[in-house]
Amino acid sequence: MELQDSILKDFADAVNSNGNSTTSSQHIYGTVSRVVEDDLVYVRINGSELESPAKSLVKVGVNDTVMCTMQAHTLTIIGNISYPALTRIENVYMTLTEEGLLIGKLDDENKPYESYIVVGPSGTNVYSINSDGVGVLVASFGETSQLGKSSTTHLTMTPNGLAIRNGTDNGDYILANFTPTGMSFRDSNGNVLASFTNDTIKLGQSNTSATINLCGGQVLIGLSGTIMKIYGGSNVGAIGISNSYSSFKSEVVCEAKSGSQRVAMQVLDGSTATASFVLSNNGANVTIPSGKALTENGKEVAKLDKLLAFGSITARGSIPGANNSVSQYGDVILDPGEKSVTINVSNIPTGYTLCGVRGITAQISDVLVEGYYCNPNNNKLTVTLKNYDYNAVTTDVYIYWFAIKNAGVSTQPNQSITW
């Protein structure tokens, strides 16, 4: 059975005393008068003829001088003054040495012949007997505790943490260190291979060519030049990064296999991709949610299926009739009637700008289009019509316009030139 340090110390003090006083601080001394069982005996306390029942923690016999304690009205024998080397466990002995109290199996010369413990003032040491009969320290317990001291690799425990060390006392080095704030692992040169703290994990930190090997070598993480890369083995069809919140998910997937090499980025709601970008050896494809826009640097990019908007206007009005005039050479010239009309094209969709006319026709054949002008700043269209009939006419004019998608595109001012 294990003895507390305080009991062992008191026991050692008792060995050096004469045992004549009845008490020494908390201890009571007496003589065994009867042994009923191993743990129930009767003791006559020094100075008394009365027998007191007591429990014994050590092996005792009649007339042995013993050391006792009294707690909660119970008398307990904690030491045998007459035979201090004998304890209650058979063939296990204790003896005092210069180093402290030795606990172990002793031969006839009072020397231990198996593993033994020495309890000293600076701590407790555990020894094993080697083949030469010499005690070898295998563990020590104190302010600094060590386990496996006889082995090349051993443990050292201090108030600051636990270390796995390798080598002898004069040249050992730390292989692993565990503290309340984290842990680290080192190679034989003392270089830190990996460290873990509450807020930082470092792997392969002493070597820029180190590789993190996962899943039986099928996933590798390493540094290629200045680029961190994740590599997939022959059994890995694709490598992806995914993040989820509720039913929403964002993913980036790199796939490289026969007949399919592509990089895909997508945003999903449940199992439905709401937006994606796929780059492959067949080209690039972008999918955006319905009603949303594709932008570049905050400006919308026009899509081919929505690049242009088309519309038409039916305008009705009168045009003056033509007149005859005489040229400077005396020729009679037909001078057609003319009408210019400016129209505000109001049904152009938001984000589009008027940029041209596909065609203009008049209901009356004598009315021709002289020209037109589109103003993209205000989506207004000016049309000039000429009437080659001598009579004023009222006619319908059909204007077919088109506008281009240019949300966010600026319109530059006009440039003036002279020729």
Question: Could you give the topology of this structure?
Answer:
Elements: H1 5-15, E1 23-24, E2 27-37, E3 40-45, E4 51-56, E5 65-71, E6 74-80, E7 93-96, E8 101-106, E9 112-120, E10 123-129, E11 135-141, E12 145-147, E13 153-158, E14 161-166, E15 173-179, E16 182-186, E17 192-197, E18 201-203, E19 211-214, E20 219-224, E21 227-232, E22 238-245, E23 248-257, E24 260-269, E25 272-280, E26 283-287, E27 295-296, E28 299-300, E29 308-319, E30 323-326, E31 332-335, E32 337-344, E33 352-362, E34 367-375, E35 380-387, E36 393-405
Parallel strand pairs: 4-6
Antiparallel strand pairs: 1-2, 2-3, 2-5, 3-4, 5-6, 7-8, 8-9, 9-10, 10-11, 11-12, 12-13, 13-14, 14-15, 15-16, 16-17, 17-18, 19-20, 20-21, 22-23, 23-24, 24-25, 25-26, 27-28, 29-36, 30-31, 32-35, 33-36, 34-35
Would you give an account of this structure?
The protein has 419 residues and is an all-beta fold. Helix content is 3%, strand content 57%. Among the domains are: 5-80, OB fold (Dihydrolipoamide Acetyltransferase, E2P) (Beta Barrel); 240-287; 306-405, Jelly Rolls (Sandwich). The strands form eight sheets. A twelve-stranded antiparallel beta sheet has the order 7-8-9-10-11-12-13-14-15-16-17-18. A five-stranded mixed β-barrel has the order 2-3-4-6-5.
